[in-house]
Amino acid sequence: MRMTRHRRRAAAAAVLTLALAWSSAQATAAPPEPEAASATAIVTYEVAGVATAAERTALARTGTAIDEVRDGSVLISADAAHAARLTGLGWELTPLTAPRERGAPRAAAPADYRTHAEVLAAVAQAERQYPDLVAAEVIGRSHQGRDIVAVKVSANAAADEDEPEVLLTHNQHAREHLTVEMALYTLEELTSGYGTDPEITSLLNEREVWIVPSVNPDGKVYDQESGTFRMWRKNRQPNAGSSAIGTDLNRNWDYRWGCCGGSSGSPGSDTYRGPSPESGTETGVVADFVRGRVVGGEQQITAHIDFHTYGELVLWPYGYTYADTAAGLTRDDADAFEALGTALADTNGYRPQQSSDLYITDGSVNDWMWADQGIFSFTFEMYPRSSSGGGFYPPGNVIDRETSRNRAAVLTLLDYADCPYRITGNEAEYC
């Protein structure tokens, strides 16, 4: 059984031929970055006495981005000024490594991951190689003018058919390069598997898949393409009245934005939510794309994964409240999220949980996708489980293993996209 739909449209007019537009020169064209001030020493700290969601939320409310949750503690990355402020507030910080200059090589080299230009070239190649399966379009541009691309994969990609749609987004946070590799793995797996793999063939005959390889291309380029990693998280949009750069795109979505202490109002914070919802250029681009998939008053996207690193987690709404149910999220909804999230985690060995079990976040993509658009939305925190595996920069030799690890999870979500409530036996009521 599938969700009721009332439309059948002709070929989408917005599909673009990108082979020329996506040359390396175009892909990297942007205003030059301002000259950096003196390098800022970034240290990884363990913060003791942080064992509960409430304690983690209290730490996050200082504007601190939590990198890793441990039993009784968390890991953060901070410069000396932020570390001193936390110490002054009473937090117990222990450095785990010697100070590392912002931009110092870590567990991987930038060359281990494909550049933004190489990503766009891979998409263009897939479109040329599989013209019936792949149709890519520029859905908007970043603050610095780089293309943000959505890649459609379906058995008849040129037509907007009456089929459930699944959206896969990647790289909201600049330093999470493994997620971009995840996007390209999925693109390759779906295209090469069509006609040879019975499961993929059946799913693409009945589903439309949208892949956005990089939501934050400016941040990706800045973090990777100087030749050394910079530990950059946000986008590269200036903030009026401040020398601090960037908005945390995953605190900038227009649902419960800034409501609950789950983001920062300080432009210098890694979790800065921006001056208003969707003020981040890239947030607005993707939100507009999603709203544009409403046809005849019905949202065509039924399911979504936003890929992040790290922690090996499957997360679902809500993030803004500890409650299992809240406005717009009924017990049947919550049960379906938990059952489907657990089924996804069973395929990849990640830990399934409601987002706020970690700590409160507000203005997040999952909460917006569900509450505003009715889309079953999950976050995958990919490899590694802990900093010992490389943290945000795992070595290149794990990329193939850790992207393929999510193959079954993606296919499972595609399977349930016709009616996610099917997993709890409630399809007759909701689909």
From TrEMBL:
Q: Does the UniProt entry include the keyword Nuclease?
A: no
Spell out the SUPFAM superfamilies in the cross-references: Zn-dependent exopeptidases (SSF53187)
Domain Peptidase M14, by residue range, is 112-417
Q: Which GO terms describe its cellular component?
A: extracellular space
Pfam families listed in its UniProt record: Peptidase_M14
Against InterPro entries, the record matches this protein to: CARBOXYPEPT_ZN_1 (IPR057246), Carboxypeptidase_T (IPR033810), Peptidase_M14 (IPR000834)
Q: What class of enzyme is it?
A: hydrolase
User: Signal peptide span per the entry?
Assistant: 1-29
> Which EC number(s) does UniProt give?
3.4.17.18
Q: What PROSITE patterns does the record point to?
A: CARBOXYPEPT_ZN_1, PEPTIDASE_M14
Biological process, per Gene Ontology: proteolysis
Give the Gene Ontology MF terms in alphabetical order.
metallocarboxypeptidase activity; zinc ion binding
The active site consists of: 381 (proton donor/acceptor)
Which keywords label this protein?
A: Carboxypeptidase, Hydrolase, Metal-binding, Metalloprotease, Protease, Signal, Zinc
Q: Which cofactor does it need?
A: Zn(2+)
Question: Catalytic activity, per the record?
Answer: Releases a C-terminal residue, which may be hydrophobic or positively charged
Task: Give the similarity note.
Answer: Belongs to the peptidase M14 family.
Q: What does this protein do?
A: Carboxypeptidase that possesses the specificities of both mammalian Cpase A and B. Thus shows broad substrate specificity, being able to cleave Cbz-Gly-Leu, Cbz-Gly-Val, Cbz-Gly-Phe, Cbz-Gly-Lys and Bz-Gly-Arg in vitro.
The protein in question is named Zinc carboxypeptidase
Q: Which organism is it from?
A: Streptomyces marincola
